[in-house]
Amino acid sequence: MEFSHKASGSYTEVLASGRLNMVSAPNLRAYVGEVVASGSNRIVVNLAQTTFMDSSGLGALIGCLKAARQAGGDLRIAAVQPQVKMVLELTSMDRVLTSYSSAEEAFGNE
Amino acid sequence: MARFWTRLMVVLTLILGVNYIGWRWAASLNWDAWWIAVPLVAAETYSLIDVLLFGMTVWRLKERTGAPPARPDATVDVFVTTYNEPLEMVMNTALAAARIRHPHSTWILDDGDRPELRRLAADHGLGYVTRGEDWANKPRHAKAGNLNNALMVTEGEFLLILDADQVPEPDILEKTLGYFNNRKVALVQTPQYFTNVPDDDPLGSQAPLFYGPIQQGKDGWNAAYFCGSNAVLRREALMELGLLGYVQETEKSIRRALAASKKAIRQARKAADADSPLVGDMLDEVEAAIGQADSQLAAGQSLSELTYEVQRKVDAAVRALVQADVRALQADLEEIAAMDLAAVGDTGVKVITDEAVQRLSAREWSPLGAMESVQAVLDALSVERAGEAQPLMPLATISVTEDMATAMRMHARGWQSVYHHEILAYGLAPEDIGTMMTQRLRWAQGTMQVLLRENPLTQRGLKWGQRLMYFSTMWSYLSGFAAIVYFAAPVIYLLLGILPVASLSTDFFIRFIPFMVVNQVLFAVAGHGIPTWRGQQYSLALFPTWIKACTTAARNVWFGRPLGFAVTPKDRQEGGPRWSLIRPQITVAVLLVVAAVVGSVRLATGLAEPVGTLVNVAWVVFDLLVLSVLYKAVRYRGHAPGEN
After folding, report:
1. What are residue B310's phi and psi, to 5 degrees?
2. How far is Cα B89 from Cα B165, in angstroms, rounded to an integer?
3. N or C end of chain A: which has fewer CB within 10 A?
């Protein structure tokens, strides 16, 4: 799994491409942790290129949400793919992490 | 009496052939030109072995007098296999199959899954079978897969297999079923004969030597083999092969998986998060489960029990990991809720249900999927044969020509086969050289795959006669390499004056000529005057096809590369003569003509000596006569039945 991020005005977009699984989940936590530590606390994780997520991946996303909230900000997700959407719905995490159709929309109402 | 003469000729061929080739190796090589001398003597040795294998085949030529009456209650399924042939052709064959007199069910096995054909079959009350959903994303195994699929949905004791173009006689089963009264007989093969071929057979479609003395000879060794169509098979024998193959493949796959497991787990430890104790714990569990399976296998425990236990333990370890993930997630959620209650929603902290945990632990979404090497090992530790559409594959799938491999496995299991030498079905041969070459390439590739995957010389259960009978067919497909040498040697002499033999003296002629003569007489006697020249021409003239078959099959078997396999189209290809198909042969022909001219000039100017030039020009003429078959073949545009 590969990560990159770019600052876009009021938020920072983190792009995660590949499979968000047991092996890559700790890397996502670490990556988002660094982005938050560098001062951005409004994060959009763009999942357009995340083709798969397992329980560890889901745990990492929630962990990242916690990190953002602890820093006084928020974490939102965008462009969720079908398998990831199914996992979110199955675990009711879609009620915690609303998925937006694109990164721009995630903080669009603020 | 015919048998006496045949055997006499075989003995003479053996004596004179060994006499000639022995002398060639021992006393005739021109070592100064070893680069052509050694290939030539090797090619000649190849040809001697080829003719001796033919001699061995016809030594036991078996002329059967017909089958005893069939059991009237023997149940039969007639399979008409099709992929993309015209519907009219398929229905013509299928309706003729329905008219076969012995009670039977007729099935169209449509690998093209054509709704129109399904409707036609229903209209005529014929069975229709296509691949089901089980085959989605699984290896299809071409015709073997088509037949294996149909075997699972039909139930006749015997199966008559017909290609889409092979129109059967109504008495085909009456003539063949009686052989199965012998409980050991698993296969009765009848000839393949083509009605759309003129007398001079420019594409060499009829194989009178093969569907004649060769199969009759193999029959004498109990090695007549299945040729894909016009044959009756015993379901019990096929099913036995399927079961046996299933057990062997499963055990092999489990052993391989266990052997690979240590490395896979080590890799997974390296790749996974080293700090995560959860992942480490899970890998420990997996390793322990696999270790136990290994000792259970050594102790002879059943494969199903042992794999079930591994899977159960691994499932438990995975579930523990998912539960731990979920617990951590839940704890995070609670912390978030404590910080800012409103943000997690009005209903409080979400609780992930047991059902969700179960689903997240299942194969599809399991975290173990991240460790592909470990997952692959665990997938292989199963008895479901997950890589295939169905566990039982009665027809061999190791080759694009399933027929020969299947027959060989039957023989290795002690079954017997019969070659019934009477035309009972009438087919359509390719009508253009391109289609013909594709078909020959496919046969040759299939035969080579069998040789490389299941070499008959080392198959347990086969008798030595049977091993050599199968090997003989494979050996004959190596002729492309010999052909190149036979084309090159005279060209090299006539252009450069380099002779691969030390001298063209009396020593040479008194050994070579008697061998050549007796060789030709053997074919004439064994073949009862069957025209064999067409076959001899094609065994040399199609040398690029034979070589390509060998190289692609070797790459496929050893390196897993695709064969570039094509189904043989049965309908005519359009367009003008396709000379480009025989470019290598045209090049060779031009070289031969140039060599003959240059050689003659060298002779006239005293640069070459007469005997050598004469022998080599004669050789060039022979080579050109061999290649001349292609001129006619490229221009051939098909033939309507009954034109002769």
Report:
1. -60, -50
2. 6
3. C
- Centroid of chain to Cα B547: 16
B439-498 confidence digits (pLDDT tens)? 999 999 999 999 999 999 999 999 999 999 999 999 999 999 999 999 999 999 999 999
Strands B185-189 and B231-234, sheet pairing: antiparallel
Q: What is the DSSP string of B103-132?
A: S-EEEEEETT--HHHHHHHHHTT-EEE---
Is-contact A110 A51, C-beta < 8 A?
no
Q: How many domains does chain A have?
A: 1
pLDDT recorded at residue B574 = 60
Q: How far apart are CA B587 and CA B578, in angstroms?
A: 15
- Interface touch B343/A69, C-beta < 8 Å: yes
More confident residue, B259 or B184: B184
Smallest CA–CA distance, residue A93 to chain B, in Å, is: 7
Distinct helix (H) and strand (E) counts, chain B: 21, 10
Q: Which two tokens stand for residue B630?
A: 């292609």
Instruction: Give me the residue label for tokens 């001796």.
Output: B52
Q: Locate A9 and state its tokens.
A: 């005005």
Cα separation, A34 vs B639, in Å, equals: 78
Are the C-beta atoms of B403 and B161 separated by less than 8 Å? Answer: no
Angle at B263 between CA B261 and CA B267, to 5 degrees: 115
B residues 275-314 lying closer than 8 A (beta carbon) to A: 275-276, 279
| The pLDDT of residue B567 is above 60 | no
pTM to 2 decimal places: 0.79
- Residue B274 class from Cβ within 10 Å (0-12 exposed, 13-18 middle, 19+ buried)? exposed
- Look at B65-79, B282-296, B578-592 and tell me which has the smallest mean pLDDT: B282-296
Structure confidence at residue B637 (pLDDT): 84
Identify which has the larger pLDDT, A59 or B572: A59
- With residue B466 as reference, give the H or E element that holds it: helix B464-476
Q: What are phi and psi of A19, to 5 degrees?
A: -105, 120
The residue written with tokens 């409103």 in the block is B342
Domain annotation for chain B: domains and CATH numbers:
2-56+474-541+574-635 (no CATH), 76-243+390-431 (3.90.550.10), 273-370 (no CATH)
Please give the Cα distance from B333 to B327 (Å, whole number). Answer: 10
Chain B, window 360-379: residues with a beta carbon less than 8 angstroms from a chain A beta carbon: 360-361, 365-371
- The phi and psi torsions of A43 (rounded to 5 degrees) equal -120, 135
Output the DSSP codes for B548-613: HHHHHHHHHHHH-----------SPPPSS--GGGGHHHHHHHHHHHHHHHHHHHHHHTTSS-HHHH
Q: Measure Cα distances from B552 to B185, B200, B566 in Å.
A: 35, 32, 13
Whether residue B367 and residue A22 make contact (CB cut-off 8 A), yes or no, is yes
Cβ–Cβ gap A55/B321 under 8 Å: yes
pLDDT tens-place string over residues B412-422: 999 999 999 99
Task: Give B108's strand partners.
Answer: B80, B128
> Which pair of tokens denotes residue A100?
């937006």
Would you say residue A47 lies in a domain? Answer: yes
Residue the block writes with tokens 């000379």? B579
Name B80's bridge partners: B108, B162
For residue B410, give the amino acid letter. M
Is residue B272 within 8 Å of residue B281, measured between CB atoms? no
d(CA B360, nearest CA chain A) in Å: 6
User: Looking at residue A41, which CATH number applies to its domain?
Assistant: 3.30.750.24
What ipTM does the predicted assembly reach? 0.91
DSSP state of B222: T
| Total residues found in chain A within this entry | 110
Residue of B nearest to A20 (CA): B370
B76 SS3 class: strand
Question: What residues are paired with A3 via a beta bridge?
Answer: A16
User: What are the DSSP calls for B240-290, one per residue?
Assistant: HHHHHHHHHHHHHHHHHHHHHHHHHHHHHHHHS-TT-HHHHHHHHHHHHHH
